[in-house]
């Protein structure tokens, strides 16, 4: 006679996570980030190919020295899919829940644990890259001609390398830098040291 075992939803989720963790092998990763320092309990962030992107896995050592791996809820988004919003004061970046930017920020915080505008996203070459979101002010007349300005309205979305918020419009006969108008462009600050190592 077969025995029926009833599991709660949380018990089932824990069981699934345990099975997934047992199947993970760091050697399956294509790239990884080193921990921030030697004192960190994190051993690395590993990127495993999944479809056209990568699934990040965070390695962490417990108090008994065992290494455990936890998968991210999200796949790494592309840089060109990064968008953001501004608050009413034009001084704060907002990442709406459900957006690719929010997911990129969650991946960053899973490993680096910083409450900042850090993200992990795919570069043009398809490599997971760490970066910081920022708004750059001061658009020149040339920039105004190349890009389509977005009139600032609360909740407007600004997209990386495609648009910027217009703070002040340019004057007809500009004479000083301020006469050319000012805007806020979404930027992603990255560096070679922020590119993960190949496994």
**Could you tell me how far the N terminus lies from the C terminus, measured between alpha carbons in angstroms?**
49 Å
* SSE topology string: HEEEEEEHEEHEEEEE
Low-confidence stretches: none
Strand content bin: 25-35%
| Number of distinct beta strands | 13
Strand neighbour order, sheet with most strands: 4-3-2-1-13
Notes on the structure:
There is one protein chain. With 199 residues, this protein is of the alpha+beta class. The protein has one domain (9-198). Helices cover 17% and strands 35% of the residues. It contains three helices and 13 strands. It has helices at residues 9-23, 100-112, 141-146, and strands at residues 31-33, 42-50, 53-61, 67-71, 83-86, 93-94, 118-122, 128-137, 148-151, 158-159, 163-168, 182-189, 197-198. Strand 1 (31-33) and strand 2 form a beta hairpin. The relative contact order is 0.15.
Topology of helices and strands:
Layout: H1 9-23, E1 31-33, E2 42-50, E3 53-61, E4 67-71, E5 83-86, E6 93-94, H2 100-112, E7 118-122, E8 128-137, H3 141-146, E9 148-151, E10 158-159, E11 163-168, E12 182-189, E13 197-198
Parallel strand pairs: 9-11
Antiparallel strand pairs: 1-2, 1-13, 2-3, 3-4, 5-6, 5-10, 7-8, 8-12, 11-12
